[in-house]
Known about the structure:
The complex is a heterodimer of chains A (219) and B (266).
Chain A: E1 5-9, E2 13-18, H1 24-37, H2 39-42, E3 46-52, H3 58-71, E4 75-80, H4 89-93, H5 95-100, E5 102-106, E6 114-117, E7 120-124, E8 132-135, E9 139-145, E10 148-151, E11 161-166, E12 170-173, E13 176-179, E14 193-198, E15 201-206, H6 209-216
Helix pairs in contact in A: 1-3
Chain B: E1 3-8, H1 16-29, E2 34-38, H2 46-50, H3 60-65, H4 70-73, E3 75-76, E4 83-86, H5 99-110, E5 115-119, H6 126-133, E6 137-142, H7 146-161, E7 168-174, H8 176-181, H9 187-194, E8 197-203, H10 206-214, H11 225-237, H12 253-265
Parallel strand pairs in B: 1-5, 1-6, 2-4, 2-5, 6-7, 7-8
Antiparallel strand pairs in B: 3-4
Helix pairs in contact in B: 1-11, 5-6
Amino acid sequence: MKESVLIKGNQHGLTLILNPDIDFETLKEELKKKIIDGKSFFGKAKVSLMLKGRELIEEEQNALVQLITDYSDLSIICLMDEHFEQANEELKNDSEDADNEAFFYRGTLRSGQVLNMDKSIIIIGDVNPGAKVISKGNIIVLGALKGNVHAGCEGNIQAFVVALSMEPLQIIISDVIARSPDKAEKQTLNEPKIAFVEGHSIYIEPLNHNRLNEIAMPN
Amino acid sequence: MSEVIVITSGKGGVGKTTTTANIGAGLALLGKKVVLIDADIGLRNLDVVMGLENRIVYNVIDVVEGSCRLKQALIKDKRFDNLYLLPAAQTRDKSAITPQQMRKLCSGLKEEYDYVLIDCPAGIEQGFKNAIAGADKAIVVTTPEVSAIRDADRIIGLLEANELRNPSLIVNRIRTQMVKRGDMLSIDDVVDVLAVHLIGAIPDDEQIVISTNNGDPIVGTQSVLSGKAFTNICKRILGEDVPFIDLHSPKGFISRLKNMIKFGNS
């Protein structure tokens, strides 16, 4: 037996698989029931909606979007067509998304080079003095961080910076800025460290289990 | 009575940046209000030699492009309250600023500071043209090497062509022992060739390398001969008549120099 509506999650939001063989009004009723049932599960979020399985005219599409927004706390920011599965620009710019997607950079960033991305950035290599890394999300350096970094550059105060060797000239997270001490401290132990903001100051601490748990489950 | 002085050399690596940092700090030590401009856009060093690299947020390009106010880009020195640095941009190149913009910048700074020192990049291209655009005076730095002197001569000619006449000369990295052996040109030889006014001679010195690496200018350290030589240059800039240090004096210095030469050979 074929269900009239199937709701699936995808990377950017929801996909509805619609049964092409039943009457549209029945389909709407079924969807309404499922949305109400799942209201607390869906929560409050901005999502994109993809409709599959059935040819719909514009009015029908609008009716479905209306129904979802009426009976849940979801807000639909865009409709995605089956052939266009790439992320929507608006979604890409969402800071939550920057937190969950990362760009890999392989190699050493040298003086005068700037890496500026909307996504979080993972660098497999060093960031030398005079180089700059800017991201809306987090910045992770699998190497020595000796240059300048700016994480959460559009105001994400939750953003963090991790480096295997943490010796930056400057760290900026959101709008909080910290600079290196003038007298170079002898690093006793070169361990991975994390920089984060607490109470409008930047803290740099060893990356231990407690800290990792806090990142994994904020609040 | 403010002055804009460009420190230039033509050849790279003769000590322009170290000289700029030390003269700047020296003039500040003598109570003058000083601002240093790094004109070496794309290959900035003055901030490193001053130990102010970690304070840079805005730079000279941000100022001329209007991304920030001049006051926001000026970095106050660690040691002297009356010494400021306007850093270069590292992610741009020499074409990011024009001689006109430099001229405007210098005349603006002149109103508030006694001395505006410009650290010129090596070469004779756009960076050089930018650096000398707003200058009233020039200091040419050279070492007692034929190649550096050849370039200094070319630079003096270009300065004259740009209405910067009678530049002052600094001979840097003199190794007294080598001069004595006849293996290095003496200060007099250099002045003979270039025929410009000598304002100072700096002995080659390990301490300079150490101070540069630590981001802490050596000027004012009277126990070190090179530090003393820089202090004297600053006094001469202020118009005092200071006798030249006898670099050949045996007291302590020679033995230190000997050690250094040994060190250099090992």
